[in-house]
Amino acid sequence: MIRRLNIYFREMFPLIPRFLLGAIVFGEIYFMVLLNYGIVHFNIGIQEFVGAYTVFAFYMYLRVADDFKDYETDKRLFPNRALPSGKVNKRDLIVACTLAQVIAFILNVLYMNNTAFFLFLYGYGFLMSQWFFQRHKIQPNLPLALVTHNPVQIIINLYIISFTCVKYKLYPFTYITFLVLWTLYFPSLIWEISRKIRAPREETEYVTYSKLFGYEKATRFVMILTLTDIITNIILVWNLNKISVVAFIGIVSWMTIKFLQYIKDPYQYKIVEKVERYTYIQETLMLLTVAIYLMIGKI
Transmembrane ranges (predicted)? Predict the structure, then answer.
């Protein structure tokens, strides 16, 4: 079983990079809330580790649940993936994923201050894994799947924000928490749509947004989301680092050009590749903004 799981995690969910992702997501939201509230003295301990682990474990749950949900489809369209190819079996994944979630549950009960939000997060994740008990309606409807499943990132953000506000006794209902709630949701939404935009001759039986709405409309919609997202970023870093503001304007200008070029000629590159590069740069800038502020203060 260990050998089979090693194959699965290497191909579908690399453990170390995904744990680092969990820590980055947790840390970015945690520090963005605190710094925008003017908190510069931090009490970091086991709770922050538990929070980062919880994000990691929940991402694992979503990955495995998606593989289970899409098993029959993947056997037809992606037969070389770990689960449909038989490199790993469902029992292996159930054992590994259950262990990770049990650890997350125990750690949250023992150490965290927002158990209700933890339960809400996993409750939503469970409903997602069951297609909200409306599989016959949601599975064939790509936009409906998006609006029911993609908001899970908002709930992850809410889990982190709730912990931070409770720990530092912060009033939770402010424009700061509202913006932070959205700041990591937009990138996931943008990526989710972008990966399902293809040039006309690249379409297959796989349902994409470009097949439903045309690649031009789908790309314009993602461009609007990207511009909206960068506005939330700029507001959050405005009082922390003006150089970051300039950098955000620079990268969103580059990404806008790429969107417009793709609309003119969708065969020159896959738009999701540019979106991924943009997102990595964007999130790196957010992390650098936090790190620089912690080291030398406001710029």
Answer: 12-33, 39-62, 142-161, 173-191, 218-237, 243-260, 280-296
Query: Is residue 67 a contact partner of residue 93, using CB atoms and an 8 Å limit?
Result: yes
Q: What is the pLDDT of residues 232-268, one digit of tens each?
A: 999 999 999 999 999 999 999 999 999 999 999 999 9
Domain count across the chain: 2
The span from the CA of 286 to the CA of 237, in Å, is: 8
Q: Which amino acid is at 202?
A: E
In a domain, 167, yes or no: no
According to the model, what pLDDT value does residue 74 have?
A: 83
Residues 147, 222: one domain? no
Round to whole Å and give the CA distance between 28 and 183.
Answer: 10
Average pLDDT rounded to a whole number, residues 72-97:
90
Taking a C-beta distance cutoff of 8 angstroms, is the pair 137, 148 a contact? no
CATH of the domain at 47: 1.10.357
pLDDT at 70 over 90: no
Residue 180 near residue 286, CB atoms below 8 Å: no
